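hiii, so i know i said id send this last week but things got crazy w the move. better late than never?? heres the sequnce for the chain we talked about at the cafe, plus the structure i predicted for it. fair warning i was half asleep when i ran it
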Amino acid sequence: MSRLLLLILAPLLISAAKPKLVPDVSQRRIDIIYSFTGAELLLFGAILYPGGRVPDAHADIAVVLKGPAEPVVVREKAKVAGIWMNVRSARFRSVPSFYALAASRPIERLVDRRTAAIYELGIDNIQLSPASGAPPEEQRRFEAGLVDLKRRSGLYSESATGVEITDDVLYRARISIPARVPTGRYTAETFLIQDGRVLAGATREIEIDKSGFERFVAVAAERWSLTYGLVAVAISLLLGWIAGIAFRRLK
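okay and structure toks below
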């Protein structure tokens, strides 16, 4: 009797099972050295469907790479009595230091605005966590300014056709890492989307850190700030003195 029940319920259990993502990245760690000019990160993986059967309806993939969150203060300048001054400011508690989205199709064609906001799919849907208590209109202006600054510095990017899917099973995406990328622990989130719903998600972590002499300088500046400052001043004075001697000899 139990065996017959299992045979009857097996198709229902298979249909109720959800697909899974098996993601990976080309580099789990990116080292920043003196000659670092940027990098290209490859995010790839496979979609595992229940029973190994690929459905007739095609699914889409969206990949989001986020840098560590940080508090940010945005200041607005205005001309006062002929002098440019900071007249207003807005604070944000938790701003991704880096954000890159790659998708197989434009996000607005994959999910509705509510779903995009829940999963932070798209630059316009990043939760910036404002903390200044400014009026809504002013807050939106500061948010737009912050996003624009991040875009222009290459730290925020979005590609509507950045994911390539092969045979509805394998996928890959390439994300450019700029030379001035912040260091820290990054998360690469992959979402499987079908019929406007997120069916599965998976996360991989990536470490971006300074290496070699750059790491030594960064650690020295953080741990021995006073000594670091004195050494920097001494080196500047020494270089100025050497340059002065060289200039006098040339004359």
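btw Residues 18-211 form a domain with the Immunoglobulin-like fold (CATH 2.60.40.1930). thought thatd interest u
miss u guys!!
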